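Z., the sequence and structure:
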Amino acid sequence: MLISLITVSYNACDSLEETIKSVRAQEFKDFEYIIIDGGSKDNTSMMVKDYQDLISLYVSEPDGGIYEALNKGLSYAKGRVLGFIHANDRFANTQVLSKIASLFDKENPDAVYGDLQYVSSFEPLQIFRNWKSGNFDASKVRRGWMPPHPSVYFSREVLQKVGYFDTSYKISADYEWLLRLMLREDITLAYLPEVLVYMAIGGASNRSLKSIIQKSREDYRAIRKNKAGGLFTLLSKNFSKLGQFFSGK
């Protein structure tokens, strides 16, 4: 089973290298690794040359942002299963891809998802927020539930059914895409109940008050577009995050 891993980056040489090392450490080796870079001005292009044996495709050119870059990566991907590992994020352990592949082989779902932890430091590891997904239920989606996007791996058939990211969303295209995925009745999901990814805090959606407001507006637009509810769904989604700060490891 070939898994396509996609990373997008821009001027993130040092953190990207740590992500690459995390990919290299995976025990499962039947994957292609695609890096889409937005034309970085730092040493990214030099650094990736040290990992030519691991990186299947490296593209560095200006783009329209994160979601356009992710779409570009998806267009290049050849795997049966596709997923993302973002720059400065790391796999939680060396067996993540092995367990994902095993679940696809065993249950033959259309998509697999798991848990994620936000970290304020990798060395030593300091957990800031614990995102435990739990089992899927469509009614939970309408109450604001959603698994973390970097924990979701999906089949090529899902991409054909759901389509690419809607780049009219600048912050919430991943949430809008997941709504399309989760609300389809012809797609089966499997939950892998463990932490798959450590994500560094400080992403685009929570970088400033302005970003948080824009994120909420885009989330609401995505909810209405996909007939997933209304203001209650948005408020439930936002309030559900509070418990993630107190749930521990």
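The chain has one domain: 3-245. The domain at 3-245 is CATH 3.90.550.10 (Spore Coat Polysaccharide Biosynthesis Protein SpsA; Chain A).

Let me know what you think.
H.
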